[in-house]
Amino acid sequence: WGSKVDGSIGLGVYPIFVLNYCPLTVVDKARNFVEFLSDRLFKDKDDPFALRHVRLVGALDEVLQWPGPKVVLASLESLVTGFALELFLRWASSPKNCI
Questions:
Q1: Degrees to nearest 5, angle at CA 91 with 52 and 64
Q2: Strand order in the sheet with 54-57
Q3: Of 54, 49, 9, whose CA–CA distance to 31 is shortest?
Q4: In terms of Cα–Cα distance, which of 57, 65, 75, 54 is closest to 11?
């Protein structure tokens, strides 16, 4: 999860956010469908929805308070409205951002 053997940087270096209006509700709903998941996900008895390396947030300010580079998975799935549009409008003009 962190640095790789070949010297490249892993995702563990950057905070990862899921930005959604109801982030905990999304994960809870996914838990309701565990019977459709592969048994291999549960062989270690770990909760596949624990998301240890992901921060579930419900407000844009929670993401913006973190300085430096970050990975943001924002809803909705289009750039018509929602957090994805807000972030795109804020970050697209900067050459430092990868969108």
A1: 45
A2: 54-57, 16-19, 71-74
A3: 49
A4: 54
Cα–Cα dist 99/91, whole Å: 8
Residue 18's DSSP bridge partners are: 56, 73
Task: Report d(CA 6, CA 89) in Å as an integer.
Answer: 35
Cβ–Cβ under 8 Å, residues 56 and 24: yes
Q: List the one residue out of 80, 61, 79, 69 whose CA is nearest residue 19.
A: 61
Summarize pLDDT for 34-58 with one digit per residue, the tens.
667 667 766 666 676 777 788 889 8
Output the pLDDT for position 32. 76
* pLDDT band, very low/low/confident/very high, at 1 (cuts 50, 70, 90): very low
Contact 63, 19 (CB under 8 A): yes
